[in-house]
Specification:
Helices cover 39% and strands 19% of the residues. The model has no long low-confidence stretch (mean pLDDT 78). Strands 3, 4, 5, 6 and 7 form a five-stranded antiparallel beta sheet that branches. Strands 1-2 form a two-stranded antiparallel sheet. Helix 1 (2-15) runs antiparallel to helix 3 (40-70). A hairpin with a 5-residue loop joins strand 4 (80-81) and strand 5 (87-93). The protein is rod-shaped, with a radius of gyration of 29 Å. It is built from three helices and seven strands. The chain is α+β, with helices and mostly antiparallel strands.
Amino acid sequence: STASELCAALAAGRSAGLEGDASADGLGSLGAATGRWLTRGMLEAYACLGAALAEEQAAAERAAAHEQLSGGRARSLSLGRDRAGASYWAIGPRAPLSVWVEPSPRGGQRGGGAAAWRRCVGLAAGE
């Protein structure tokens, strides 16, 4: 990965003396003999390492979210409609499956957001 390659490059840079501690080696910017110092190339490598680690973490979080969502079900067709025109949808993970009711389009609320939908309660398994 990019992060492991950058870690190896930074280790090589440290071995080559491209960064150090002024109190230990007496080197520093403008003769200052305190604190850590490093070359611009090392600074840029550390910045790239931070970005690479952040991207790896974001990719891991996306993969975890995808894994969590892939365990569920979604329907592209409703289960059916009642006399009032409300649509019924089976949505949720494989067990337990939830049935949700979408209001009738006659009320002008079809797809009208989460507040318009309600979970169907009182159904026994197989009804």
